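I am writing to request your help with a piece of structural work I have in hand. A protein sequence and the structure tokens that stand for its backbone fold form the material at issue. Please examine both parts with care and let me know of anything in them that strikes you as inconsistent. The record follows directly beneath this note.
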Amino acid sequence: MLKPFFVWQNKELKKINPEDVICLSTEGNYTRIYLADKTFYMVRSSLWGTLKKLPPDIFIKIHRSFVASIYHISSINKDYLVVRDEALPIAKRYYRSVLAKLNIIE
């Protein structure tokens, strides 16, 4: 089991298990953390700042605006990956690093 992290919501710290996070997206200085139960948390942190606090072997930056969890990736194409029936874009500059982080049997 991975070490949980906490986010501030309504003046309370909420515990989040990294296994429950499916992806992150950025909106300026804010980051949305999407969970497997279809809820999300909005935190006042850049995507890069949030990513630095998460386990690096699980979360992969796939685009300047998106990070995906390897636990929830269903399939990968050259231009996008599918996370829980949602297609997220993969930027060309991140494609090789995404493949390098995955355990691929050829």
Q: What stands out?
A: Residues 92-101 form the longest helix (10 residues). The chain has a mean pLDDT of 94. The two ends are 28 Å apart (CA to CA). Residues 2 and 73 are 18 Å apart (CA to CA).
